[in-house]
Predict the structure.
Amino acid sequence: MKMDHLLMLKALAFAAEKHRNHRRKDENASPYVNHLVTVALLIAEADETGDPELLAAALLHDTLEDTETSPGELEEIFGRRVRDLVEEVTDDKSLPKARRKALQVDHAPGLSPGASMIKIADKISNVRDILERPPADWPESRRRAYLDWAEEVVSRCPGTGTELEKVFFETLKTGRRNRTEEGGFQRVE
C-alpha cells in the first residue's frame, strides 16, 4: 500500500476512535465521524494535488478541540505539518463560546492555505447540516445566526485556489432561499 494511503487511513482510524462516542447535534444523533469524512472528501474533491497530510489533517481537525488528544501525540503519529494544520483550526475550549467565535473571524485572514481549506470545508459541512439536518433544539434564529457567522468566517479566509469557496457560497445561497420558501428564514442575502 502506498504510504499516502496509509497516512490517511491511519488518520481516519485515529479520528474514529477518538470521536467514537461523539454525535452530531441533529435529531438522529449522527456519528461524528461522518462530519470528519465529509470535510476530508470536500477537500479531496477540490484539491487536485491529493495532499495526504492535508487530508489527514482534515480528518483530524477536531481531535485537539474535542478529545483528550495532545498536539505532541498528533505530531508523533502524523508528523509536524499535520499537527500544525490541526492546531491552526483548533478553538481554545477554555474560552467562552462567543469569544471563540469572534477569534475564528479574527484569525481567518491569517490561515495558511491548507488550514483555510480545512476551515472552509468544515463550514460547508456544518452549514449543510444546519440546513438539512438541524439540531432539534435550535430555533430558526439560531440557525440563521450560525449561517451569518459562518459566512463571515469564510469571507475572511484566504482564497484556496479551489472550488471550495464557490461551493460554500452556493450552499449558503441555496439553503437560505429554500428556508425562506419553506417559511423559515425571514431574509435572503
Q: What stands out?
A: The mean pLDDT is 92. The first helix runs from residue 3 to 18. The chain has ten helices and no strands.
